[in-house]
Amino acid sequence: MLARRGLVVGAAHLAVVGVLAACRTRPLDGASDSGRGDGAILSARPGPPPSSPPAGPLSHPGTHPLGLADVRDALLHVPWTVVAGVPAPLVLTLHGAGGDAAGALALLGALAEERGMLLLAPASRGRTWDAVRGAYGTDARLIGRALSDVFSLTAVDPGRIAVAGFSDGATYALGIGLANASLFRRIVAFSPGFVPPGTPRRGKPPLFISHGKADDVLPIDRTSRVIVPDLRHDGYDVTYREFSGPHTVPPDIAREAMDWLG
Q1: pLDDT tens digits, 63-113
Q2: What's the rounded Cα separation, in Å, for the pair 117 and 82?
Q3: What 3-state DSSP class applies to 97?
Q4: pTM for this model (two decimals)
Q5: Number of H helices and number of E strands within the chain?
C-alpha cells in the first residue's frame, strides 16, 4: 500500500509494464458498456476556487485513495509543493496494460512533486482500458467520477488540466483527450498504439508524443509514425520525439514533457 505521505519514485528508466497477476475486478455499480463513442465525453469540470482552503483529507500532501472501488481504486497525489487553497495544475495519468494506479503515479511523480502538479491516477477495471478493448464504458465513467471528486475537494486550475499515459495508457489518453479538449488542455502520449476507433474529436488540444525506435512491444513504424502524421494532417499541433530505446519513458523525455506542459 502506498504511504499516505509522500511518493517515492526511482530515477531509473521505466521498464515495460509487467503482466498482470491474478487481479480481482468488478464493474462499477449500475454500469454497462454502451459501445457508443459518446461514452468518451466527460462532464466533470472544476468549479470556482474555494473561498477557504479545503479541510478534507484530499487537501493534505501525500497519496490518497478516492474510495471509488473496493479493488484497483483511483489515487490522488498531492505534492508538498502545492499551496493549500491556491488552484494547482492537474495531470490525469494513465497506466499501461497490466499496470495499476501506483504505476501511473510513478510515471511523472518526482517531476510533479518538483512543480506542484496534482496527479490523479485511476486504474482500469480489466487488464487494460475499455476503449483499447472495444468501447468506452466503465473505465471512462470511473475517470469521470474521480475527476468530479477531485474538483469538489481540491483547488484545480481549469486552464492547466492535462492527460498523460504510457503504452495502452497513452492510447487511452489520446482518446479521452481528443474527446474532451475543453477539459484537457494538453495531451501527453508516451509510446501509444493507436487512437481508439470511434473517438469523437472536440477541439484541437496540443499534443506531446514520444516513442522508442527499438520498441518491440508497440513498434514505432505501425504506431506513432502513423498516428503523428495523421494528427498533423487533421490540424493538430504535435510535438513529437523519437529516441533510441525500447518500450519505455526515458527520464529526459519525461522531463521534456513536463516542461512542455508548463
Answers
A1: 999 999 999 999 999 999 988 888 999 999 999 999 999 999 999 999 999
A2: 7
A3: coil
A4: 0.85
A5: 6, 8
